[in-house]
Specification:
Structural class of chain B: mainly alpha
Number of strands of chain B: 0
Number of helices of chain A: 12
Strand content of chain B: under 5%
Low-confidence stretches of chain B: none
Distance between the termini of chain A: 92 Å
Distance between the termini of chain B: 73 Å
Shape of chain B: elongated
Number of helices of chain B: 4
Order of helices and strands of chain B: HHHH
Shape of chain A: elongated
Structural class of chain A: mainly alpha
Number of strands of chain A: 0
Mean pLDDT of chain B: 93
Order of helices and strands of chain A: HHHHHHHHHHHH
Strand content of chain A: under 5%
Radius of gyration of chain B: 22 Å
Largest interface: A-B, 42 and 31 residues
Helix content of chain B: over 70%
Radius of gyration of chain A: 25 Å
Oligomer: heterodimer
């Protein structure tokens, strides 16, 4: 009956309000715990990307910790249904910039790039006739690759790390770094070429 | 007319990123079908991407994982 329904919603019924309030708090706590669990489940992936956005493992660990502390405090600003991993990485990138990384950056020199076939040609020509693509790539050691990546200037490296290592879309990378998508694409293209030039140089030095 | 291999080289990154138009895609594939030189370099680039990703993947220390879990805000 209509009348009954109205009675149930009488304003100012202290017990009903209290129960409603308790329910709201319980629902909020549940949402928060779920958010925390989802964020923690992504921590391996967040760290993998952070490791190469930051200069060292220690720095990466600090950044990840600070990111999670901030994320847990401001979890309400995350919109459910959007990309949580990208949201976390955006916090992390901003913290990294706040730490003055940009100020420490060396003056922007014109980074040299190799053409896209250059590295293969370089590795194959030193390869005692081995030209099989997978064998050729194995001429690069893990150390070569890690140090070549760290030699790529920040602006280019950030994009490579997000897209090629973190598997973020161009769109997400653009959002995380707060740059236009066209810039993501051009930095990625040039960054990969710079990385290949660095890799080619590391093999030349070993051969010398 | 451009050197077809130089043109193919320019299309390699967008090809592997799958952002070429259908038309460009068939153009690249037609060239790759008949050009061993470019095919090899495309395959190399593909292996390189996988190889780089594996080489730079560093595991998080379990201690850090515990520290992150401890940052959760306790329920009242």
């Amino acid at each position: 009956m209509k009348e009954g329904a109205t009675v149930a919603r009488v304003e100012g019924d202290p017990r009903a309000e209290e129960a409603e309030g308790a329910q709201r708090i319980a629902a909020g706590a549940r949402d928060r715990v779920r958010f925390e669990e989802e964020a923690l489940a992504l921590s391996d992936q967040v760290f993998r990307v952070a490791r190469h956005l930051a200069g060292s493992r220690e720095e990466a660990e600090d950044l990840v910790q600070e990111t999670y502390a901030r994320a847990f405090r401001s979890w309400r600003s995350f919109q459910p249904g959007t990309n949580l991993r990208a949201w976390l990485l955006r916090i992390l990138t901003n913290l990294n910039i706040d730490r003055g990384r940009r100020r420490q950056r060396a003056p922007q020199t014109q980074a040299l790039e190799a053409n896209d076939y250059f590295l293969y040609d370089r590795l194959a020509e030193n390869g005692d006739g081995v030209s099989d693509e997978e064998r050729v790539v194995e001429r690069l050691s893990q150390d070569d690759i890690v140090s070549a990546l760290s030699a790529v200037p920040h602006d280019f490296r950030d994009v490579i790390v997000l897209v090629d290592i973190g598997d973020f879309s161009y769109q997400d990378a653009a959002h995380i770094l707060d740059i236009p998508i066209g810039t993501v694409m051009s930095r990625l293209h040039r960054g990969r070429r710079i990385l290949k030039r660095e890799l080619a140089e590391s093999t030349v030095q070993e051969g010398a | 007319m451009k050197d077809p291999c130089a043109h193919c080289e320019e299309m390699m990154q967008p090809y592997l990123d799958r952002i070429l138009t259908d038309e460009e895609m068939s153009e690249a594939e037609a060239h790759l079908d008949e050009c061993e030189y470019c095919r090899r370099r495309y395959r190399f680039e593909e292996s390189l991407r996988v190889y780089v990703r594996q080489a730079v993947s560093e595991q998080m220390r379990p201690e850090l994982k515990e520290r992150l879990a401890a940052l959760r805000i306790p329920l009242e």
